[in-house]
Write a structure and sequence with these properties.
The protein is an alpha/beta fold and about 375 residues long. It folds into two domains: about 230 residues, no CATH class; about 130 residues, CBS-domain. It has twelve helices and nine strands. The strands form three sheets. The protein has a four-stranded mixed beta sheet with strand order 1-2-3-4, sandwiched between helices. The chain has a three-stranded mixed beta sheet with strand order 5-6-7. A hairpin with a 2-residue loop joins strand 6 and strand 7. Helix 3 crosses helix 4 and helix 6 runs antiparallel to helix 7. It is elongated and about 80 Å long.
Length: about 375
């Protein structure tokens, strides 16, 4: 859900950094505020980069706190109001939402921005004392040093609003989650966040403040993204592997030659195959691996191209758990489903959306019949 409206920016310490597309709106505003001319436009870009850097400062501080508490972040989506982290496990996400770490994660962002503002203020008075800090406009492409100081304070102040997914709003969500559960707490906090966003938007119109308008808009976007993410998670955690696994699938023998395996693959819609020996699962491989091995080394045996380290699931495991097994696995997009030592099904990324669609329709029809 989040990745569809974002731009990949690379990885830092194993965390995938993505930039939300709406951040480009800020870049457009920066061009407008910079006025006409090449030099002014460059100053507008510099103002946008300052905001991006200050968001990075707060998220770096939050990342250090996450690492201190042993929370593994997998993704970080950057918005102008801050970042939306994605954690590697539900346990880490729950700890960040309402565990020991959630207060520290909520306060460290504003503290980091206030400290950054203090450093900037010291730099201004030490290097450029002629800069009028209190002169208006506080944030403008024409005065980058002054803008950096006020942008940092603005980020700290805006995150003190009780609007999810801002820092204070995360504290509110943690409080709600303890009494209403994860989904109910997120929905309640998200509703408050959207109300605050609307209030900021209206205030921005009356005060003719583009920054309040943008803050309201991005708070609303962030609340929607978080709400959708939690709803999706609640859905996938109620679906079991036995509900969606493929029970009619082809498997390969470890002793099959690669040519025989490719012949079997030709007559199957699968891209991923479990590999068995004496009826027991010993590996998994793909159509692509078989083809590449044949092209490079000629004929051989399936056991030479199978992955021996892989994740498995049980029929009662949730879809959410399986997603995590796929993402944490050996690069293969299949999870075998075992009943004891017997393979009874497979779940692949290839068939997942198709199976989920059929399952949703099946549940809907059963509900209509019950009514």
């Amino acid at each position: 859900m989040r990745g569809g409206w974002s731009i990949p920016m690379g990885r830092i310490l194993g965390v995938e950094i993505r930039l939300h597309f709406f951040f480009a709106l800020l870049l457009g505003l920066a061009f407008v505020s910079g006025g006409l001319g090449r030099f002014s436009a460059l100053r507008g870009v510099a103002l946008w980069l300052l905001l991006l850097g200050l968001v990075g400062v707060r998220e770096m501080a939050r990342g250090l706190v996450s690492a201190y508490y042993g929370l593994r972040m997998r993704t970080l989506l950057l918005l102008p109001i801050g970042g939306l982290p994605g954690y590697a496990s539900p346990e880490d996400a729950e700890e960040a939402a309402k565990g020991r770490a959630h207060v520290a994660l909520a306060v460290v962002g504003p503290i980091a921005n206030v400290l950054a503002a203090a450093v900037l203020l010291g730099f201004i008075y030490g290097v450029a004392p002629q800069v009028a800090i209190l002169a208006k406009p506080w944030i403008s492409a024409s005065h980058l040093l002054r803008s950096a100081f006020w942008l940092s304070l603005f980020l700290a102040a805006i995150n003190l609003l009780p609007a999810y997914p801002l820092d204070a709003g995360r504290l509110l969500r943690g409080s709600f989650s303890r009494s209403r559960g994860n989904l109910g707490g997120t929905r309640a906090a998200s509703g408050i966040g959207q109300a605050v966003a609307l209030a900021l938007f209206i205030a921005g119109i009356f005060l003719q403040s583009p920054w309040l308008l943008l803050a309201g808009f991005f708070i609303f976007v962030g609340a929607q993204l978080e709400d959708q993410g939690v709803v999706l998670q609640s859905v996938v955690d109620t679906v079991r592997m036995q509900d969606i696994m493929l029970t009619d699938f082809a498997s390969l023998l470890a002793s099959d030659t690669l040519e025989d395996a490719l012949s079997k693959a030709v007559h199957s819609l699968q891209d991923d195959f479990p590999v068995v020996r004496s009826g027991l699962l010993v590996g998994i491989t793909t159509r692509q691996r078989i083809l590449e091995a044949l092209q490079m080394d000629g004929n051989g045996y399936v056991q030479s191209v199978m992955a021996r380290t892989f994740q498995v699931a049980q029929p009662q495991d949730s879809l959410g758990a399986t997603f995590r097994r796929i993402s944490a696995g050996s690069g293969l997009s299949m999870v075998p489903v075992l009943q004891g030592e017997q393979i009874v099904g497979i779940v692949t990324l290839q068939n997942l959306m198709h199976s989920m669609g059929l399952l949703a329709e099946s549940r809907r029809l059963r509900q209509q019949s019950a009514e």
